[in-house]
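User: ok so my PI wants both of these folded by tonight, can you help

Assistant: No problem, let's get them done. Here's the first:
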Amino acid sequence: MKEFFIKEIGEININKSKKAKRLSIRIANDGKVLVVIPVWIPYKLALSFAQKEKSWILKHKEKSLKNLERQKINDKGLDYNTLKARAKVYLPSRLAYLSKKHGLEYRKLSLRNQKTLWGSCSAKNNISLNIKLMDLPDHLIDYVILHELTHTVQKNHGPAFWRTLEQYSPGARTLAKELRSYRITGVNTNQETN
């Protein structure tokens, strides 16, 4: 692995890999940039590739650094009470509003400080929402709420679930992908909702 410096991007690491079949860029949790290339590609070409992808790198580097900062705050417990207070005010009213708007009924709501799930819906239609939702943009908070409300009528993640969710949250699969780019206290989970 070799280190290089590109103006505006900063330090990047280039790793030649026998397994790599193409050039790829990864952004680590701490914002470090890694370019992985096949062994036959020269470093100069990798640097040129990184330069072309500068806007993508900067966007994802910033997101990683924000997630890291959020993790530090949550790990220290500095923002927990504020987060909980905001969640208690906003999430119940937003859930009630979206439930009524779409005719999706739930039994009760629990607010939790979870490490792996943004939300869940039980077999009895009890919904649990993570207070850390308050760190997300509004459109993703709504997506998680609608995801869980959809589980009141579709209990699994089969095709019928996604068709139903799409009615309430257009572009649901894109939103699910966007949600996966956020972390809950430093834990990146592909099970963003249940």
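One down. Here's the second:
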Amino acid sequence: MERVYEFLKKAGTYYLATVEGDQPRVRPFGTVDIFEGKLYIQTGKSKEVSHQIAANPKVEICAFHDGKWIRITGTLARDDRREAKAHMLDNYPELQSMYSPDDNNTEVLYFEHATAVISSFTEAPILVNFTE
């Protein structure tokens, strides 16, 4: 999982795909964290992406960096604990003007089950499985 985290940190921006009804939805994200051995992302509960994940927690992430790309397929679970939210926001102080671990909007989600594949045109794919 550390390799997946490092790839996403270096890429800076990744794209999160969700489903709304029968329509795929994709948007850029940048938050990623490891807390208590789990890979986390962050959003706001008021956003459509949060509602989409609540309705269908199966997601996919894609990012590109240095001639390689990663695809992470898995299921997200919400962690409402203050400690998880604070850990994320401590690592992204620029978000602290919009989010707080004590507000009713900040949402952190972790992958319960996931598979990541790091690919390139010149090397064999690297498969990383991780679960809760």
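Strands lie at 14-20, 23-29, 33-35, 38-44, 58-65, 68-79, 106-119, 126-131. The mean pLDDT is 96. Good luck tonight!
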